Sequence to fold (109 residues):
Amino acid sequence: MDKDQILQMSRNENEGQPDEWEQSIEKQAAQVGKAAGLVTCILLVLLAEYVLHNRNIGRAAWIVFFAMEGTSYLCKYLQTRKRSHLFWAVLELFCAVAYVGILIILAVM
Fold:
């Protein structure tokens, strides 16, 4: 086989899959999206606390944030089996559930 045949076989084998450049763009976009989500949650908490005087809005923002982060770490753990990812997944999902519990308790009271 010559070089062109090997390249064509490789292209056919990897057709439809993102290359390293596209993967790095996806990773960077996910990081920027997570940072934007964090900033949005912080702004919602501050707005709810100091302007609207309604803490439930801030709690709801933290539920979304912790659920998003915990799920992200859970997916990473399932693919890599790194224990640190499992630790952060459990911790952040626990925080999300705790905030849901707080909202329910406060709604009942």
